[in-house]
Amino acid sequence: MSSEPTQHLSAPAVAPDTSQRRLRVAQGVLLLFHVTGFLGLGFSKDPDFYLQFVPLNLLLTAVLLFAFQRDRGFAFIGFCITTMVVGFFVEVVGVQTGKLFGVYSYGATLGPKWLNTPLLIGLNWLMLTYMAGTLARYLPVGGFLRAVAAALLLVGMDICLEPIAVQYDFWTWAYDVIPLQNFKGWFAVSLILQVYFNRTDFEKRNPLVPFVYLLQLLFFFGLGWFIR
């Protein structure tokens, strides 16, 4: 596999006005869901009502995000499947052994589990890997440095996510302490996946990616600041 995409068969071109309208609609839907979730979790007397929609929000975000990935050929599908499988089983090993990220266990918020690991966690790894890798391609640096930058973007998202995850039963840590090992493990796994992302041959452009990454970053950072 080469490090840069070659010629691909992609979806027919969409008129600029139509494409922009689709993008604005997608951004509006995602903004509505995240603002509703933020207000519900931050101000409602019954946050459990809103927590039950977390898996739905994750699925909706993934559908809209990948709808704007024009090149959805075999290379992209292979990347998605591989990243989801790797992400899921990395978490399985992490939960079962405590050696990758520290000692933790998943709660009920992320939905149904297999091997004590939410089935949706692989999709979460895919989305974060894809978004961080796509954003890093704006940097005028070589492939490995882009992978490092993207891995740091993933760790930055995790730093903002951790207080929310603990507060709302995404997962819990032994002794209620988030270990430094967690962030080291996230960086190591993220770097491996980013090297794979860079070496997989598909078009890596998506106009919705910057909006989704920033929206999620602000969502988790804002909630984390609010519940301190």
UniProtKB/TrEMBL annotation:
It comes from the Bacteria. This is Carotenoid biosynthesis protein. Keywords: Membrane, Transmembrane, Transmembrane helix. The chain crosses the membrane at residues 25-43, 49-67, 74-94, 114-132, 144-166, 208-227. Pfam families: Caroten_synth (PF04240).
